[in-house]
Structures are given as structure tokens and as C-alpha cells.
């Protein structure tokens, strides 16, 4: 391929730049705004063989998303225009969901590091959930205070706390609060959205 000279590159730049085309009378909303790349480009969603729906994972607004996939692999994420919440729009974080899903650094398995260990080991989700339940019950049983010294009924533990994430909506936070305070006796129940 021959090397382009500076005058050739300048001519190409002026041909692609919209201002000279607008000055020549082209419509700034149509042909003057269109570059060669835009004329020949195709939407990335055109290659999808399936479209699924999802909810943005970043906050409690609950913006609906369309996940376009080819061969069961995501190729694009867009806002869902049928959603009354976001009406097809996404904030910058929501628009970056594709990077979250396809990042090679994304964890897609459960890792556990035992106390005093230096290495992580892969475990099953069932094992991890059983372990969390066992340690929660053990800690609650060991630290549960039924009555204060003066006889006041307490029924609480101050050894366990909960910090919820900003993706939890009001209804989920309500249920978490009821379960953790009434069911387990937790005193410290907070949400990351308030921190």
C-alpha cells in the first residue's frame, strides 16, 4: 500500500470533515453529518441470533436492558425501549455492562480462603451457602442475648451485621430488615446506598 502524503491526507480530512460539506450546501442533519465510516458501518446488533432481557446491575433504579447474543455469547447491551423506567436509555455505568459481562477479570466461580490461608481455592456454590448458613447460626447462637441484666427483653446479637448493596430495591431492603432483625436478632443492618 503506497504511503499517503500530507496533501493527500489533508484532502481526505477535508472531504470527511462535515464543516466544508455544510458550507457547500449539504444538510447538516443528513449527508454532511455522515462520514464514510458511518455510511459503510453496520449495527453490531445485526449479527445477533438471540435477544434476552435483563436489569442493569449497578443501582436500584432497575433500568431494563436488551442483551444481544450470537452463539450464546453476548455481543451488545442496549437499553430496553419498552421499559417505563429508562425508556431505552442507559447511564454510563449501565452502558458499560458489556464490559462487566465479558471482562477476563470477572469471577465466574466461588472462591474460598480459609482462615490464615494464603491461597484461594475453588468451592461449589452449595458448599459456600451451607458454610455461610452454618457460621451465621453458630455466631448467633454463641452471641445471642435474650435479656438484659435488669430483665429487659433484648433478643439480639451484636456479633453479626448486614451491609446491603445499592442494587437492592426498597422491597428487598424491607424483607432483609425483617428477616435479619426479627429472625436473627441482628442490630446492625445498614445499606451501602446510605454510607
From TrEMBL:
<keyword id="KW-0560">Oxidoreductase</keyword>
<keyword id="KW-0004">4Fe-4S</keyword>
<protein>
    <recommendedName>
        <fullName>4Fe-4S Mo/W bis-MGD-type domain-containing protein</fullName>
    </recommendedName>
</protein>
<feature type="region of interest" description="Disordered">
    <location>
        <begin position="21"/>
        <end position="49"/>
    </location>
</feature>
<keyword id="KW-0408">Iron</keyword>
<keyword id="KW-0411">Iron-sulfur</keyword>
<dbReference type="Pfam" id="PF04879">
    <property type="entry name" value="Molybdop_Fe4S4"/>
</dbReference>
<dbReference type="InterPro" id="IPR006963">
    <property type="entry name" value="Mopterin_OxRdtase_4Fe-4S_dom"/>
</dbReference>
<keyword id="KW-0479">Metal-binding</keyword>
<comment type="similarity">
    <text>Belongs to the prokaryotic molybdopterin-containing oxidoreductase family.</text>
</comment>
<feature type="domain" description="4Fe-4S Mo/W bis-MGD-type">
    <location>
        <begin position="49"/>
        <end position="105"/>
    </location>
</feature>
Amino acid at each position: 500500500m503506497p504511503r499517503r502524503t500530507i496533501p493527500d491526507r489533508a484532502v481526505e480530512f477535508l472531504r470527511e470533515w462535515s464543516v466544508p460539506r455544510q458550507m457547500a450546501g449539504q444538510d447538516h442533519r443528513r449527508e454532511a453529518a455522515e462520514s464514510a465510516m458511518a455510511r459503510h458501518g453496520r449495527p453490531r446488533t445485526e449479527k445477533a441470533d438471540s435477544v434476552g432481557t435483563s436489569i442493569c446491575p449497578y443501582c436500584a433504579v432497575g433500568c431494563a436492558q436488551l442483551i444481544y447474543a450470537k452463539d450464546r455469547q453476548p455481543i451488545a447491551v442496549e437499553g430496553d425501549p419498552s421499559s417505563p423506567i429508562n425508556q431505552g436509555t442507559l447511564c454510563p455505568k449501565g452502558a458499560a455492562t458489556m464490559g462487566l459481562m465479558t471482562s477476563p477479570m470477572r469471577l465466574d466461580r466461588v472462591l474460598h480462603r480459609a482462615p490464615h490461608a494464603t491461597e484461594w481455592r475453588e468451592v461449589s456454590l452449595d458448599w459456600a451457602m451451607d458454610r455461610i448458613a452454618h457460621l451465621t447460626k453458630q455466631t448467633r447462637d454463641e452471641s445471642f442475648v435474650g435479656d438484659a441484666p435488669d430483665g429487659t427483653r433484648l433478643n439480639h446479637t451484636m456479633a453479626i451485621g448486614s451491609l446491603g448493596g445499592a442494587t437492592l430495591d426498597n422491597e428487598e431492603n424491607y424483607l432483609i430488615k425483617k428477616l435479619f432483625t426479627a429472625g436473627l436478632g441482628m442490630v446492625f443492618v445498614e445499606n451501602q446506598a446510605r454510607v
